[in-house]
Request: fold
Amino acid sequence: MTTIIAAIGTNNELGKNNDLIWHLPADLKRFKQVTTGHHMIMGRKTYESIGKPLPNRTTVIITRDLNYKADGCIITNSLEAAIEIAKKDDNAFIVGGAEIYNKAIDLVDELDICEVHSAFDADVFFPNIDQNIWKETKRENFQSDDKNAYDFSFVKYERQK
Reply:
C-alpha cells in the first residue's frame, strides 16, 4: 500500500519558501509514529528542507539530477521508480512536496491528512481531494492548546473502489 501523508491548511496550503508555515508538535509526533519503519518517498526540495534522512525510515528521494547524492538515501528519477523501490513495504508514504503530491494522488491507496483549521499565506498547495474518488473513513478532531496553536484534525481517506 502507498499512502500520501500531508498537513494542509483550510485552503490546501502546504508551505511557503520550501518550509512549513505552522508548528504543530502533535502532527510531528504522529508523523514520526506513522512513518517509522517505512519508506518515505519525497522530492529533492522536501528532502533538503528536512536536511537529513530521518531515523528508522528508508528515505527515497526523487530528483531529475542524475548525479544527486545524499548519504543514507535511495535516489531515483521518477515517482513510479520510487514506488517500485518501496513495493515490499506494507505501507510506503509519499511525504511531499507539492509537485510529488500532484503526481502521486492518482497512484496511491490512501490519504493521511492533518487538516490545520486555519488559512495561511502559502506558495505551494495540496491537490483538491475529490470526494468522488476519496472516501473519508476516519476523523479525529483536536482543539488548539498550549503546544499546538491551531485546531486540527487527522483525517484518513481511502480510494473508492
The chain has a mean pLDDT of 96. The radius of gyration is 15 Å.
